Amino acid sequence: MAVTLLLDIALGHLRRRRRQTLVSVLGVALGVGFFVGVTALMRGFQQYFIAQVIDVSPHIVIKDDYRAARPQPATLRWPAGAVAVSGVKPRDEPRGIRNARAKLAELEAMGLAVAPTLQGQVILRYGTRDVPVSLYGIEPERERQVTNVERDLVAGTLDDLRSTANALIVGVGVAERLGARRGDTITAVAPSGVSMSMKITGLLRSGITAIDNGQGYALLKTVQVLQGRSNVVNQIRIRLADIAAAEPLARQIEARFLYRTESWEETNRNILGLFVVQNAIMYSIVGAILLVAAFGIYNIVSTVVYEKTRDIAILRSIGFGRGEIQAVFVIEGVVVGILGGLAGAVVGYALIELLGQVRFENVGGIMSGRDGFILAREVWPYLVGALFALIAAAVAALVPARRAARLNPVDIIRGAA
Amino acid sequence: MLEAVDVRRVLPGPPPVTLVDAVSFAIDRGEFVAVTGPSGSGKSSLLYLLGLLDRPTSGMVRVDGIDTSGLDGAALDRLRLERLGFVFQFHFLLPEFTALENVLIPIRRLGRLDDRAARHRGAGLLADLNVAEAADKYPGQLSGGMRQRVAIARALANDPAIVLADEPTGNLDTANGRAVFDVFERLTAVDGRTVVVVTHDIDLAARTHRRLHLVDGRIVRDQPVRASAA
Question: What is the spatial distance between Cα A111 and Cα A109, in angstroms, rounded to a whole number?
Answer without folding.
Answer: 5
